[in-house]
Design brief:
The protein is α/β, with parallel strands linked by helices and 560 residues long. α9 crosses α13. It starts with a strand and ends in a 9-residue tail after the last strand. 51% of the residues are buried.
């Protein structure tokens, strides 16, 4: 079903120029026009509508976006196509093409986006996951401009990034301001963004939009960020440090605010005087907003709008994108099927297990062996249920267990700090309903499942009915009750070490060692060394009450 919203609107837009693209001139005497804005975000390198890890069709892809955009452009030549970032990370196809050891470097996601024909793309936080060298190489392949007005130091870092641009379509001047997420230093290690600064996007927009409006008829702001308040009620969601959409929408002078990052399907709607939207993730939707324009006093003004999020699931993939990706896709399929050894028992990779889990314990085993740390902190990362039967062991399992390009860091924590970390890991459980043979455990759906870490190398209990901050019981290492002044080496991923997930102490703890290789590569090496893998949980932690399942709390979808 398509969500369509229509409404009257009268806002003027003018713009500041980074550079101007002259496309066409207005027809003589033309007094009314419609500008069609097409927008995607967070496609995460889903070039083709197929999940190579789970070997099944996927819903959404850049190839299907290309089909939608081509059709919409043909229907409305007065159009502009934009993207909100997080495009060069997210699939094995992309990883093996641009980031794996010996990767050739030709970026399939960028090649597909070139076929779509974007007018501008904003940098997302995941653009930095593979470091600046990979980012420069991928950006250089783009036939579209990159924007991030709140990014400082780009020129010195040799990143071809502008802040804003003005595009002319049919005599209509469209000003576009791009903003990236300023939390990149909290999510990526310093070597991935060294020399760059990230300013408050609201402050930057407040300073630049008034100048932008002086030179354009329509002003569009594209931000790699979601909304920090509930759009229906205005209630705060506690994400002010990460999401800025609500505050940006309050600024005067923005005709259209296009958002991303939180992977939500938000059809075009009004928020105050501004139309806002977000197109979900993975190319599953294309946001389409038609801005009705009228010429007044020699300039165009927005007089109304209509819009919807167009689903792509039933669209045929653009054959140009399919053909472009075919050689690399064939290589990836062969790599994912490459035999490494034997999985001696079935393994189910789950989004959030309710007991010590064989899949998460396998991640722990890799982290401990790769680092030599005493303890390992890790979370379930699979994002859904995927079953691997006993049989050949291949890199496909490594990607299912660990879809993110994190590396490893060993930090030193005291016993008191270790308890703080574990308390933070279990804070998301919100309620328990018990009846019959067990209890159903509710959780905060706004907290992503990858923030529910567990600890290996220790034993402990979790009481989900206790107040937050007092849920960890009997924490022991080597059979000894942990004391506040004890010290331990703990293997964590680079996202945690940079402050990701808001975990206490991890970003500031003394660093003992760093392993600068993606976890999926370490897992493949672990499989190769051991040959035969028997997945099993050692039950080193448990809940204090018997549980049936985790129910779905009535809340917003989790952030990425």
């Amino acid at each position: 079903m398509r969500n369509v919203v229509r409404g009257p609107w009268s806002v003027v837009g003018l713009a500041c120029v980074a550079f101007v693209l002259l496309v066409s001139s207005p027809a003589a005497g033309q007094e009314r026009a419609t500008l069609r804005v097409l927008f995607t975000s967070d496609m995460h390198a889903h070039v083709l509508p197929f999940d190579d890890v789970r070997e099944r069709p996927a819903r959404g892809s850049i190839a299907q976006v290309a089909t939608v955009v081509a059709r919409e452009r043909q229907a409305s030549p007065l159009s502009v196509v934009l993207d909100g970032g997080d495009e060069i990370e997210g699939t094995p196809l992309e990883y093996y093409a641009i980031a794996a050891p010996g990767a050739p470097g030709a970026d399939p996601a960028i090649a597909a986006m070139n076929i779509v024909g974007y007018d501008a793309v904003v940098l997302g936080n995941h653009e930095f996951n593979f470091g600046l060298d990979v980012l420069r190489r991928s950006m250089a392949q783009a036939r579209f401009p990159w924007l991030a007005a709140n990014l400082g130091g780009a020129e010195q870092a040799r990143l071809p990034v502008g802040g804003e641009l003005v595009i002319e379509r049919g005599g209509v001047r469209i000003g576009i301001l791009g903003l990236t997420n300023p939390n990149i230093p909290h999510w990526d290690p310093p070597e991935h963004w060294r020399g760059l600064t990230f300013a408050d996007p609201v402050a930057v927009a407040a300073a630049r939009v008034p100048e932008l409006r002086k030179r354009a008829d329509v002003v569009i702001v594209v931000v790699h960020s979601g909304f920090e308040r509930d759009l229906a009620t205005g209630a705060p969601e506690g994400t002010d440090n990460e999401n800025f959409g609500w505050r940006l929408a309050q600024l005067p002078g923005i005709d259209l605010l296009l958002t991303g990052h939180t992977h939500r399907n938000i059809p075009p709607q009004r928020l105050g005087a501004t139309v806002v939207a977000q197109p979900g993730r993975w190319g599953e939707f294309v946001t389409r907003v038609d801005l009705n324009l009228a010429r007044e006093g020699g300039a165009w003004k927005v007089t109304g709008w209509s819009g919807e999020n167009v689903p792509t699931a039933r669209e045929a993939p653009d054959p140009r994108v399919v053909a472009e990706a075919a050689p690399e896709e064939a290589k990836v399929k062969a790599e994912l099927a490459r035999p490494l050894g034997e999985l001696t028992a079935p393994l189910e990779v789950t989004a959030l297990p309710l007991a010590d889990d064989p899949g998460v314990d396998l991640i722990h085993a890799v982290q401990l062996e790769a680092t030599g740390a005493q303890l390992s902190l890790a979370a379930p990362l699979g994002g859904g249920r995927t079953e691997f039967p006993a049989g050949p062991l291949t890199p496909r399992l490594a990607h299912a267990l660990y879809p993110y390009p994190n590396t490893l860091v060993v930090v030193r924590l005291t016993g008191a700090e270790l308890e703080d970390v574990l308390e933070h890991a279990v804070r998301g459980w919100t309620g328990v309903a018990c009846a019959g043979a067990g209890c159903a455990l509710e959780r905060n759906r706004e907290l992503p499942t990858y923030n529910y870490d567990t600890l290996e190398g220790a034993t402990y209990l979790v009481d989900p009915t206790a107040p937050v901050g007092r849920r960890i019981l009997g924490l022991r290492v080597a059979g000894k009750l942990v004391q506040p002044g004890d010290t331990f080496t703990v293997a964590i991923n680079s996202y945690r070490a940079a402050g990701g997930g808001g975990y206490p102490h991890l970003a500031t703890a003394p660093r003992v060692k760093e392993i600068d290789r993606p976890m999926v590569s370490l897992i493949v090496d672990y499989f190769t060394r051991h040959g035969r893998i028997t997945p099993a949980a050692d039950d080193n932690w448990a809940f204090t009450i018997p549980l049936r399942d985790a129910t779905t709390a009535r809340a917003a979808a989790p952030a990425p």
